[in-house]
Structure formats: structure tokens, C-alpha cells
Fold Nucleoside diphosphate kinase.
Amino acid sequence: VTERSFIAIKPDGVARNLVGEIIARFERKGFVLVGLKQIVPTADLAKSHYAEHAERPFFGGLVSFITSGPVVAMVWEGKGVIAAARALIGATNPLASAPGTIRGDLAIDVGRNIIHGSDSVDSAKREIALWFAETELLATATPN
Ligand code: CMP
């Protein structure tokens, strides 16, 4: 099934100049970029995005980190992209991420894991609507 997923390169990924590397991996896999912008998220946006973690001890640090600099927010489209993006990204803790995955190859720290990807159809819908206006997204993706 053709799906859309919300993918964000976090401030550490941007600061480490990994934007091109990460986008290239999604492009080479065959997914299509239908939305792209760079923003410094507000605390409100960050708190809404991570609402499910609100009670966790790391929530404050997570929000201050994600709002600390530019984030590259993207929407990628393609067959099974939600699960496939999670596979490309690797496990949340980069030390547990398989080599070959983005986090497995490029990160060490769970709090600095360089990229976020939606974990389900419902969160993809919610996160895309939170980060993007409909007018910022291509209506139809051009297949590649
Ligand atoms: P992400 O996929 O963006 O979703 C929630 C984020 O919380 C996760 O990636 C991590 O960056 C972060 N996170 C999860 N567990 C911890 C932790 N124990 N300490 C700090 N950050 C964490």
C-alpha cells in the first residue's frame, strides 16, 4: 500500500552535515519526497510531537534538544514507507541499531539519534498534519 511517513532529521543530524547522506538513502531506496522544509520547532510543536513521552524522565531534555536548532522535516511517500523507513533508520538506541541502518552507521547516543520516523499509520497522519500544511505537500508524487 502506498503510504506517507513523517521523517525528521534532528538538530544533531543537521549540525553533523548528515542531511544529504540521509536523504540519499531514502532516494536510493525508491521513496519519493513530497514535502521538505527546515525549521527550528517551537516548544509547543515539540511537545505535541512527543506528547506520548510527556511522562518520561527524558521528556524535558528531548524537547529542549529538538528545539535547539534547525530540523529538516520531510514527508516521504511510497509502498510500505512507514515500516521501511523504520528499517532504514534502525532501532531507537543507536548502539542496538544494526550496521547498515542510519542510526547503526552514524550515531551512538539514544538522545542524539539524528533522525525520527513515524511508527504507525496513525502517528504518520498525526505527525504530517502537525508539521505541514496541506499546501506544503505535493498532491501527487511523481514516481521514480
Ligand atoms: P524518536 O524516534 O524521535 O522518538 C522518541 C525519542 O526519545 C527517541 O527518538 C530518542 O531520541 C528519545 N529517547 C528515547 N529514550 C531516551 C532516553 N532514555 N534518553 C533520552 N532520550 C531518549
Remarks:
- Residues 19 and 90 are 17 Å apart (CA to CA).
